[in-house]
Amino acid sequence: MDAASSDGLLAIGGDLRTERLLLAYKNGIFPWYNEDEPPMWWSPDPRFVLFPEELRISKSMKQIVKKNEFEFKVNGAFEHVIRNCSQVKRNGVHGTWISNDIIEAYTELHRLGYAYSAEAWLQGQLVGGLYGVLLGNVFFGESMFSLVSNASKFAFISWVQSLQQQGVILIDCQVHTPHLESLGSRMIRRSDFVEILKENIGV
Alpha helices of 69-189 — where are they, by DSSP H? Predict the structure, then answer.
């Protein structure tokens, strides 16, 4: 990991074959690049993560969860989730980093049982969710979307609680966002992150 730049860029090039993606995740590396660029591989230091027991749920979200306004599903519509994530408009970002190649690669990971989607449904319609990769006792979050207020937050909270019951000890959030910080995510050293992976995945 010492080869990573100050912003976490580790390598440029390669492809998104399943074997390469799984090896990257096991070593704390993830792909992130624009559609017109070659694959770029990142390992930020510090790393933004959530320990499930540190999940923070606001009073307003507790009320939303309690009302059962949304229905929570896992892998109900994986490809729809990732395609919705690819269409999310982000401040200061033109286009999307979730290209067709990314969609195909992660849909294959889903088919093989590595990639999961966590979803919020409202009146039979998919209205929010997230996707990522689950290896051992670590979930690597990739992206989320919301079509109605609080849908992605509901899906995330429900998924974290579900993962905790399954024995997952860490959720990788990759880089800082105020949204995830409000839910309890925090920075840890990359060396500590990699050590957790070794102990809970088997690098």
Answer: 78-86, 100-111, 151-166, 178-181
CA pair distance 118, 76, nearest whole angstrom: 8
**Measuring CA to CA, which residue among 194, 2, 15 is closest to residue 99?**
15
Asked if the 47-200 domain carries CATH number 3.40.630.70, the reply is yes
Domain ranges of the chain: 47-200
What pLDDT is recorded for position 5? 54
The pLDDT value given to residue 94: 42
DSSP state of 54: G
Q: What percent of the chain is predicted at pLDDT more than 70?
A: 92
Strand arrangement, sheet containing 30-31 = 9-12, 40-42, 30-31
